[in-house]
């Protein structure tokens, strides 16, 4: 199917069906939440029933995207209903929606809308545009092309997603299309400065102190151009990883930022960010992870010593070769 036909097919699905499950990858980020919220507001404005379910909890800073009750549901085994109309946003593989898979009926229509280069086209209908900086912009394209009304609530949601995935229009994926889309979203009433402020400038005092303590423990591997920070999420959880990653990424001497979190007994999660051409998606895929060229993640089971002697050691060797 060509692009126009896929978009038309998605429009037909949104208009003709009802009772939708909207979901995205676990460990939700701003693009994930923004794209889900934009889709949710579109469907409910059209009088449809819809829920957003994620394996993990909501990120509170995005609560302003919903007035009153937050429709975002964290997955639990108590949820028994199976959905036949499913929209998966901003997610490279079916596995990355995690436990939410249990809520999808066998004969469901799954619409997969994404921008990850490693997307496996797992849906019944797939619209994957790897050139888009955010999934939220693809949702914007679909809604516009299919003639849906874009309310301020929808545009605020999509602009939040766009700003999150571009680091506030600062990452390398910021291109003409992102700027054009920002202008377009402002025409629907979104306030760029206000949304940037809500997303990037509002970290509570306790969290700020914690972020700075973690940053103070950063190790810099000068020759490898890697900055590495660590947190024990089990005993001293951070609400979000992004503020740490932002600061790590701003270290001039580092081209690669790595944030390692201990998330359980012998369980670790790594988030990687890079500047320029070092492809952290390619690196993460060697270790069962994935993402984008400049932002990716890996999960690891084992001791810290094992993590250091495998993934971290591989990263150092790879970076040393890359930058020599
Ligand atoms: Mn995204």
- The CATH topology of the largest domain turns out to be inorganic pyrophosphatase (n-terminal core)
CATH architecture of the largest domain: Alpha-Beta Complex
CATH fourth-tier homologous superfamily of the largest domain:
inorganic pyrophosphatase (n-terminal core)
User: What count of helical segments does DSSP give?
Assistant: 10
CATH first level of the largest domain: Alpha Beta
What number of domains?
A: 2
Strand composition percent: 15-25%
Instruction: Write down how many β-strands occur, each being a DSSP E stretch of 2 or more residues.
Output: 12
Bound molecule types:
manganese (II) ion
Order of helices and strands: HEHEEEEEHHHHHEEHEEHEEH
Largest beta sheet: strand ordering? 3-2-1-4-5-6
Mean pLDDT across residues: 96
Largest sheet: 6 strands, parallel
* Structural class designation: alpha/beta
Give me some keywords for this one.
Diaminopimelate Epimerase, Chain A, domain 1, 10 helices, six-stranded mixed sheet, 12 strands, 2 domains, alpha/beta, 324 residues, inorganic pyrophosphatase (n-terminal core), binds manganese (II) ion, six-stranded parallel sheet
Could you characterize what this model shows?
The chain is an alpha/beta fold and 324 residues long. The protein has 2 domains: 3-200, inorganic pyrophosphatase (n-terminal core); 206-323, Diaminopimelate Epimerase, Chain A, domain 1, CATH 3.10.310. 38% of the residues lie in helices and 22% in strands. It has helices at 3-16, 30-45, 135-145, 152-165, 176-187, 192-200, 205-216, 242-249, 280-286, 304-323; strands at 20-24, 50-54, 72-74, 83-89, 104-114, 125-128, 219-221, 226-232, 256-264, 267-274, 290-292, 295-301. The strands form 2 sheets. Strands 3-2-1-4-5-6 form a 6-stranded parallel beta sheet. Strands 7-8-9-10-12-11 form a 6-stranded mixed beta sheet, sandwiched between helices. Helix 2 runs parallel beside helix 3. The longest helix has 20 residues, at 304-323. It is globular. The site of manganese (II) ion has 6 residues, from loops. Manganese (II) ion binds at residues 31, 90, 115, 134-135, 165.
């Amino acid at each position: 199917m060509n692009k126009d036909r896929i978009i038309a097919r998605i429009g037909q699905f949104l208009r003709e069906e009802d009772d939708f499950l909207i979901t995205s990858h676990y460990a939700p980020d701003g693009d994930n939440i923004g794209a889900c919220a934009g889709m949710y507001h579109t469907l409910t404005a059209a009088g449809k029933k819809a829920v957003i379910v994620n394996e993990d909890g909501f990120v509170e800073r995005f609560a302003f995207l919903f007035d009153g009750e937050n429709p975002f549901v964290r997955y639990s085994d108590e949820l028994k209903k199976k959905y036949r109309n499913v929209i998966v946003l901003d997610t490279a593989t079916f596995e990355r929606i995690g436990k939410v898979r249990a809520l999808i009926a066998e004969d469901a229509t799954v619409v997969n809308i994404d921008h990850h280069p490693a997307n496996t086209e797992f849906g019944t209908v797939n619209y994957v545009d790897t050139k888009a900086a955010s999934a939220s912009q693809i949702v914007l394209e679909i809604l516009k092309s299919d003639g849906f009304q874009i309310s301020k609530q929808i545009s605020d949601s999509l602009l939040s997603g766009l700003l999150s995935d571009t680091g506030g229009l600062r990452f390398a994926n910021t291109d003409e299309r992102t700027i054009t889309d920002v202008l377009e979203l402002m025409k629907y009433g979104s306030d760029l400065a206000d949304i940037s402020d809500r997303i990037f400038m509002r970290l509570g005092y306790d969290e700020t102190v914690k972020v700075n303590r973690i940053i103070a423990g950063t190790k810099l591997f000068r020759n490898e151009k890697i900055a590495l920070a660590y947190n024990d999420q089990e005993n001293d959880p951070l609400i979000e990883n992004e503020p740490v990653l932002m600061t790590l990424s701003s270290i001039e001497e580092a081209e690669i930022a790595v944030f390692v979190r201990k998330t359980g007994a012998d369980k670790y999660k790594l988030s990687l960010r890079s500047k320029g051409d070092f492809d952290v998606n390619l690196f993460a895929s060697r270790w069962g992870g994935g993402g984008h060229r400049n932002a990716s993640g890996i999960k690891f089971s084992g001791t810290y010593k094992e993590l250091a002697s495998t993934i971290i050691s591989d990263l150092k060797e790879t970076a040393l070769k890359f930058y020599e």
